[in-house]
Amino acid sequence: MSKLAWQPYAAQKHSTVTGTLMQLAGVQDAHHPPRTVLVWLPPSYAASQQHYPVIYFHDGQNVFDDATSCSGEWHADEILTELAAEGLEAIAVGVPNGGDDRRFYEYSPIPSADSALPLGGGGSDYVAYLADTVKPLVDAEFRTLPDAAHTTVIGSSMGGVISLQAIQQRPDVFGHAGLMSPAFWTNDGYSLEQTALLPAPSGRIWVDVGGKESDDPERASAYWQDAAQFADLLRPRLAERLRFVSDPDAIHHETAWAKRLPAALRFLVWGL
């Protein structure tokens, strides 16, 4: 790892990145092949000595640049630039998934019970990769506020599932979690069971869901009902530290998550 060096982002043709984006290639551990981690720096970073809260995004290739996304970007860089104009600044880290053949495995906490689903069960190793490999590299290079109280993890669909896993598995590292359209249906109730059994998170949880998460009515209902049940499980214990947002017209897509992202970040990072 000592030979790795942060570089300015290698923009592609038709890149849509706003602001300062850095990259570190070859970030790997024993369980994860090399990938390029992205770090977006707030507008005041270069001219200040300030330290900033940090947001870790899963599916990092979809977070900042439409040119690298599979179906559109989250516009996190533009949204964070707008928040910075309000005095709300944070560093954002985009951690790409391992590719179509590995994404489900990395983001799922247990082996798949449904034979129609890809192989699951790599979630614990992925959380360890984030906490013990990626985060130390970010903290060593940039002026972060490294404690859990200033560290947020956020993702959508399976990324929502692994965000919950992260805050449950490593509460010493990840203080707040954003679960956008979480695909709890993929683990046959495991995420909900763990939520009921484990101590309540000490930080803030954002969970949201749309009414049109799938063209399959049964699957769409599962997204909606599971998210609502998750919120019901935590509401008595978290009170104002839980935010549940439902939108009957929202679909399962980056455009929907980007629309909800400003409110999610205000709540998770700054408690607004």
TrEMBL record:
Protein's name according to its UniProt entry: Uncharacterized protein YbbA
Superkingdom to which the source organism belongs: Bacteria
Protein species of origin: Deinococcus xinjiangensis
Pfam family, one: Esterase
Alphabetized SUPFAM superfamilies for the sequence: alpha/beta-Hydrolases
Gene3D superfamilies named among the record's database cross-references: alpha/beta hydrolase
